[in-house]
Amino acid sequence: MNKGTIYGVALGPGDPELITLKALKTLQKADVIYYPETTNGKGMKSSMAMRVLGALEIDSSKFRAVEVAMKYDRSEVNETYRQLAADCILQAESGKKVAVVSEGDISFYSTFAYLVDDFKKAKVHYEMIPGVPAFILGGSLAGEAVCKQTDKVLVVPEIKDETQLREYVSANETVVIMKVSKLKDWIAGFLQKHQLDFFYGEYMGTDKEFTTRDARVLTERRIPYFSIITIRNEQQVILGNSPIKSN
After folding, report:
1. Where in the sequence of the chain do the CATH 3.40.1010.10 domains occur?
2. With a threshold of 0.85, does the pTM exceed it?
């Protein structure tokens, strides 16, 4: 029997209409589709990926949930990825078309990235189907370009403190912060202090979407995991410890 193929399929940022035609066709022809799912402290399951999959014309009997622990300790989630890779390889070696989906783009902070080494070692054929990352949708919702001409764009998943963020913003025309919830204790004050041009978005492309450009709104807001902030500093103003004046 000929070996099957494993597909890493990007679902886009949350709006089912933003999935690519190629991604949709790949999912429709797949024999099995693995999607990430999380469980909160109250035992309730949720999945951003399933929000997209459930809105598409795909046979739901193909769906297989993969429980991904949302913890800073990576030991549990690494074991989950190892098992997922093994399951995908086994299915592909039996001749099946296997899809593993992720929100955003499949090569950009994606679960699929943690599976690739195992696929290479097993010499199983895999393909990656790209999609729209969340910060690109953010630019559209903000109604402005994320970057222009020779602008430098920095995308960061973690920031240690205000000093580090000052350095990033001073050195780049655009800074995109992923996982804003880690900065919830000080990010609103930082944006107010430096009077920065920014766009905040959470659950973008879904019915829970919320966006703002007002730092005061973020002061009391409960910032979720699925959130981003895009900061624009087109004039490359050097941020110091004291407030700067807006143009």
Report:
1. 5-132
2. yes
Res 132: pLDDT: 96
How many CA atoms lie within 13 Å of 193's alpha carbon, on the beta-carbon side? 13
Find residue 63's DSSP bridge partners.
33
Please state, in angstroms and as integers, the Cα–Cα distance from residue 200 to each residue in 14, 185, 243, following that order: 16, 15, 21
- Could you give the count of Cα atoms lying within 13 Å of 187 in the half-sphere of its Cβ? 27
pLDDT, average across residues 74-103: 93
Q: Is 72 exposed, middle or buried (0-12, 13-18, 19+ CB in 10 A)?
A: exposed
Region of poorest pLDDT, from 46-50, 90-94, 209-213: 46-50
- For the stretch 206-220, pLDDT in tens is 999 999 999 999 998
> Residue 25: how many CB atoms within 10 A of its CB?
11
**Domain at 135-232: CATH architecture:** 2-Layer Sandwich (3.30)
Residues of the chain with CATH 3.30.950.10: 135-232
